[in-house]
Amino acid sequence: MTLNAAVSAVTDRIIERSRPGRQAYLDLIAREAATAIRRPNLGCANLAHAYAGTDEDREAMKADRGMNIGIVTAYNDMLSAHAVYYRYPELMKVWAREVGATAQVAGGVPAMCDGVTQGYAGMELSLFSRDTIALATAVALSHGTFEGAALLGICDKIVPGLLMGALRFGHLPMILIPGGPMATGLANKQKAAVREAYAEGKATREELLDAEIAAYHGKGTCTFYGTANTNQMMMEVMGLHMPGAAFVNPGTKLRQELTRAAVHRLAGIGHRGENWRPLGHCVDEKAIVNAAVGLLATGGSTNHLLHLPAIARAAGIVIDWEDFDRLSASVPLIARVYPNGSADVNGFEAAGGMPFVIRELLGAGLLHGDIMTVAGEDLSAYANRPVLDAADALAWEPVGESGDESILRTAAAPFSADGGMRILSGNIGRACIKVSAVERERWVVEAPARVFADQADVLAAFKAGELERDVVVVMRFQGPRANGMPELHKLTPPLGVLQNRGFRVALVTDGRMSGASGKVPCAIHLSPEALGGGPIGRIRDGDIIRLDAVAGTLDALVDPAEWEARPLADAPPAASGMGRELFGLFRGLADEAEKGASAVLAGAGL
């Protein structure tokens, strides 16, 4: 199939723009492959320290008979998606031995849960936890005792952080190993209804808690299509998982066999064999474009307009929002998964899941098939679904037709002809908006502004009835340099209630709205942010704001002379407590959202 013209043009644009940085990166990993510290070159005392913690594998390590796999794990049992990793390392050691390799836990990385911190002070650490994870991954792999690595992580900042750190060791082969989504609980539509009822005072706290526990009820990833599950989609279209691994439930034989196969495969793609597949070559410009296409085709999380540029930068590649915008115009929306539909990811998987999506996008010339994947020569292997054969062994078979056309459709008959992401620009700045779940008649909102700098104040104004009108809620000083760019998902229920009451409602913010961005139009990631002079700081209560996702504009309808003469609002004092003061260095170094809002990449000059 001929590559789609828009995909080809965007890819060429990225390759040309990235040429100096990408070459510098490839030179780095070539130098590391040739000269970096390796086990055979380590001193005896160094090796003794590395081997002291193991008994069964010590002789094999000493003899240097096979690959030593470093396991970088984000396990904790407070985060449901990562609780499944509890026994993975001990099992992976057994599976490594089956193919003459060894494995050690190289290190752990933090893994916070945005669902727990949402709306509270801890959320201000969330985005920078990604940079912390990147640093922790680098520390874990810095010992020079591993010939490859297995990256155990799933959720919002964890996968991007793991990749950002791991790509600086891109001369090593690596595979990402997911754990799968929890079984389906309370339907997402029912959960949203209880949340909105509680926001209106029509449901008790006990009723709300019971509904939330019925929705988030067991080990595994949350089942809505937010950032965590979008991560897993991206790893599939980039060829960094075993094929079809993304959405197989935890605790199943198939899940176990996929993990076992990942360990076996990792042992076979090291530098000693003829099938060397280093991470830095797998993650190239084409793989990054595949991730962007997958994001648009499935209606994935807006957070990846931050994360994908950051991942790309770690590999010497530059992708910007204009690339997303151009791709969105040509990539059809072929999946409807909550919050962009009624089904959860288990329904998506049952309908055909990622093998169906990849087959359709490859067939329509919308994905680069000729990328280096961890599993095979190209991406075509990922159009097959994993199964257990008659002997209970892992096998792959071609995916069939969609099992439910309300969830998955062909590229020839999509839900929408475009991917539902838009770039907005105007006198307030440059922002992005996800419209795949927003009704078309709400793509344009023109209403008076009500300005806030704290989520709690928005909720208080809502409860006091002060927002009972057409309104554009402006949330400023929520950018990476101001307070770490927390998600503002707690605003979803009250804004949804106002919209349900018939008002024209929108959100404009230099913060994030999360992978759960839904039916209310939200202009997010506004740049430049308020702290440092962004024009969002000029908005005053009562200004008429026009958000137009059709024309791609975002403006304060204020006389230009008056607008330019207005002083900027004063920033709130820097917050302290909950460890936020420790991240002052990160806030000071962070660059703009379009570059990925990263402190460590900016600090490294990448």
TrEMBL record:
Cofactor: [4Fe-4S] cluster
Pathway(s) annotated for this protein in UniProt: Carbohydrate metabolism; Entner-Doudoroff pathway
Binding note for cofactor: Binds 1 [4Fe-4S] cluster.
Pfam families, alphabetized: ILV_EDD_C, ILVD_EDD_N
The Dihydroxy-acid/6-phosphogluconate dehydratase N-terminal domain, residue ranges: 68-380
InterPro entries: 6-phosphgluc_deHydtase (IPR004786), Dihydro-acid_dehy_C (IPR042096), DiOHA_6PGluconate_deHydtase_CS (IPR020558), ILV_EDD_C (IPR056740), ILV_EDD_N (IPR000581), IlvD/EDD_N (IPR037237)
Start and end residues of each Dihydroxy-acid/6-phosphogluconate dehydratase C-terminal domain: 407-597
Sorted UniProt keywords: 4Fe-4S, Carbohydrate metabolism, Gluconate utilization, Iron, Iron-sulfur, Lyase, Metal-binding
Catalytic activity: 6-phospho-D-gluconate = 2-dehydro-3-deoxy-6-phospho-D-gluconate + H2O
GO biological process: D-gluconate metabolic process; Entner-Doudoroff pathway through 6-phosphogluconate
Residues reported to bind [4Fe-4S] cluster: 155, 222
Keyword Metal-binding annotated: yes
Repeat as UniProt keyword: no
NCBIfam families: edd
Protein name: Phosphogluconate dehydratase
Organism: Sphingomonas carotinifaciens
Gene name, Swiss-Prot/TrEMBL: edd
